[in-house]
Amino acid sequence: MAGEVTSKPTHNTVINEDAIAQVFLDARTYNDFEDTPIPEATLKRLYDITKMGPTSANNSPARFVFVQSDAAKARLKPFLAEGNVEKSMKAPVTVIFAWDEKYYDKIPQLMPHNPGAREWFTGPGAELNGRRNSVLQAGYFLLAARALGLDTGPMTGFDAAGVDGEFFAGNPATENWKSDILINLGIGTTKNLFPRLPRLSFDEAAQII
């Protein structure tokens, strides 16, 4: 087969415990952040890591707006739930995590060996597939941010229609984007950091059959 990979690119080794702790075990959802800017190069690297996570047919529906400037934060502020205003205004960056309703138009670019795969996603299941795969990408984004030494604060308390109208409407490049989650990024502080909540045990949440 043309383009077939002949050597395995991955390494089947367990990453060290410090890395696991940073990304999962010690990581928290933060509600307050230091006044420490995030360099543009770090934001670009964060995206470049996130984009490598798998999606169905490589459809990659997620879209990102990194809200960093005071002017952009002021535009976002009216659409935030009251409890999310202070933390978002203080965070160095708030990411509008969105998905593109016409993500399938990019599939010929993303699957050049099978451009007809676009048609797999244009039917009644288009929205479900787009949302499902963008949620996968949101998970990759949070873990990639932690891997780069950033703390995160994901939020769903905001007026999505208002955000879409303010940031996406009227621009041909973004008019089909729909906001789904907001994610604050920065170096977190212990202010308003609550005790970790319990998780379900393996036996409560999983089966081996």
From TrEMBL:
<dbReference type="GO" id="GO:0016491">
    <property type="term" value="F:oxidoreductase activity"/>
</dbReference>
<keyword id="KW-0288">FMN</keyword>
<keyword id="KW-0521">NADP</keyword>
<keyword id="KW-0285">Flavoprotein</keyword>
<protein>
    <submittedName>
        <fullName>3-hydroxypropanoate dehydrogenase</fullName>
    </submittedName>
</protein>
<dbReference type="InterPro" id="IPR029479">
    <property type="entry name" value="Nitroreductase"/>
</dbReference>
<dbReference type="InterPro" id="IPR050461">
    <property type="entry name" value="Nitroreductase_HadB/RutE"/>
</dbReference>
<feature type="domain" description="Nitroreductase">
    <location>
        <begin position="28"/>
        <end position="163"/>
    </location>
</feature>
<keyword id="KW-0560">Oxidoreductase</keyword>
<dbReference type="InterPro" id="IPR000415">
    <property type="entry name" value="Nitroreductase-like"/>
</dbReference>
<dbReference type="Pfam" id="PF00881">
    <property type="entry name" value="Nitroreductase"/>
</dbReference>
<dbReference type="InterPro" id="IPR023936">
    <property type="entry name" value="RutE-like"/>
</dbReference>
